[in-house]
Q: What sequence folds into this?
């Protein structure tokens, strides 16, 4: 049913969590619900010791200079490697003071802490932190602007000069000023937006809002907390010429799933479309789900603008990193998950696909990876894995070969801000 976009009518038609769960279960199907052709289940194995890339206690430019997202890399026209570590800024009531005292600073004023930084160098073995942020957070208190706390998370470049990026935006202002109850993460709408660099990835900026919006909840805040966030890296599909990314979506604290988005024009944020689901399970079988900004005039059915999940029985919520592997001749997904979807088997998993939609069942790479300078297994939390082949022929490192590295973040037991970026070599076997 079509209806006008106003907060009253939309709120009245917002599906309940129970109805959402039934709808998604119908689209998802079971473990055998996939209709696509899958590659055979290859193997990815750890091939060496863990290495430290970034030690927060030694390298951080500020307390919130932390790897709070999967590491991403590009190679510039001059051959310089940029390795990006994302973290959005926080309002003053949400972070610890500069002197390390564990008391929050009162108020909800914008804060310069927590920027998006890069490490740069001639190669991956000679990287150094650069304390000039590549992008900060706009911290706009209006949800309709979709530019509050911003994590610069995805990059793609063809020439090493113009770099296209995807941004994970969180509307944290509502939580800070008490507009929603419960935990902070249970009431934060998320949006994927666009940013671009024209100086080889040194600095990024976004088009004027709302022209920067890529993937957005079709319901206005606070009618729903469906959110699109944490985009994977961008990968170019040599089979069809499109650029793809995965994104995590769902209703916070109720359910979540992973969907795929694609575009044939990285410079146009409005050109991204999402997967419409397999025909066998009630979907369209097409990339035909367009995103709808709920604050623009017009009438529409919000259900027409919600993508379908990808292989939930196979990959759960894995979405962090994708690449095309020329050795295996298929796509590789690396992410953080569990079997079953809860402890005790949390760890880094991987899966394979021929079309970025249908995935093989996830396989565990390693539950615990030894930190070379901190404690032993189980003494820290592991998160945000990404796959980077240092010898990739792509300037965006979205192509991998027989050997590569898995980068990941560890949160040390000394505190939530003591996070290091580590890497471990891996090999692929047919």
A:
């Amino acid at each position: 049913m079509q209806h006008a976009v106003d907060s009253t009518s939309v709120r009245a038609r917002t599906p309940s969590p129970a109805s959402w769960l039934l709808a998604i279960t119908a689209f998802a199907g079971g473990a055998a619900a996939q209709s696509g052709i899958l590659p055979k289940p290859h193997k990815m194995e750890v091939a060496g010791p863990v290495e430290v890339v970034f030690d927060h206690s030694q390298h951080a430019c500020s307390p919130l200079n932390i790897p709070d997202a999967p590491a991403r890399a590009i190679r510039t026209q001059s051959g310089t490697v940029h390795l990006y570590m994302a973290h959005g800024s926080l309002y003053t009531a949400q972070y610890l003071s500069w002197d390390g005292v564990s008391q929050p600073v009162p108020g909800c004023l914008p804060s310069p802490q927590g920027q998006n930084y890069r490490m740069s160098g001639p190669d991956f073995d000679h990287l150094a932190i650069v304390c000039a942020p590549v992008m900060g957070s706009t911290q706009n208190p209006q949800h309709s602007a979709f530019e509050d706390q911003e994590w610069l998370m995805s990059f793609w470049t063809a020439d090493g000069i113009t770099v296209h990026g995807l941004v994970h935006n969180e509307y944290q202002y509502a939580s800070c000023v008490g507009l929603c109850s419960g935990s902070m993460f249970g009431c934060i709408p998320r949006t994927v937006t666009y940013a671009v660099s024209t100086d080889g990835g040194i600095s990024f900026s976004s088009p004027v809002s709302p022209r920067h919006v890529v993937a957005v909840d079709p319901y206005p805040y606070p009618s729903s907390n469906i959110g699109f966030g944490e985009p994977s890296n961008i990968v170019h599909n040599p089979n069809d010429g499109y650029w793809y990314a995965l994104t995590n979506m769902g209703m916070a604290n109720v359910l979540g799933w992973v969907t795929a988005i694609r575009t044939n024009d990285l410079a146009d944020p409005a050109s991204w479309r999402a997967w419409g689901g397999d025909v066998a399970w009630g979907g369209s079988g097409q990339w035909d789900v367009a995103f709808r900004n709920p604050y623009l005039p017009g009438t529409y059915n919000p259900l027409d603008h919600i993508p379908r999940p990808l292989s939930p029985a196979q990959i759960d919520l894995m979405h962090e990193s994708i690449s095309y592997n020329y050795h295996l001749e298929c796509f590789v997904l690396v992410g953080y998950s569990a079997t079953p979807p809860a402890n005790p088997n949390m760890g880094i998993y991987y899966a394979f696909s021929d079309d970025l939609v249908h995935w093989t069942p996830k396989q565990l790479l390693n539950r615990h990876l030894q930190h070379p300078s901190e404690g032993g297994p189980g003494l820290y939390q592991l998160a945000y894995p990404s796959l980077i082949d240092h010898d990739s022929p792509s300037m965006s490192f979205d192509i991998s070969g027989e050997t590569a590295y898995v980068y990941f973040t560890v949160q040390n037991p000394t505190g939530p801000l003591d996070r290091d970026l580590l890497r471990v070599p891996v090999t692929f076997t047919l």
In short: The CA atoms of residues 164 and 270 lie 14 Å apart. The radius of gyration is 21 Å.
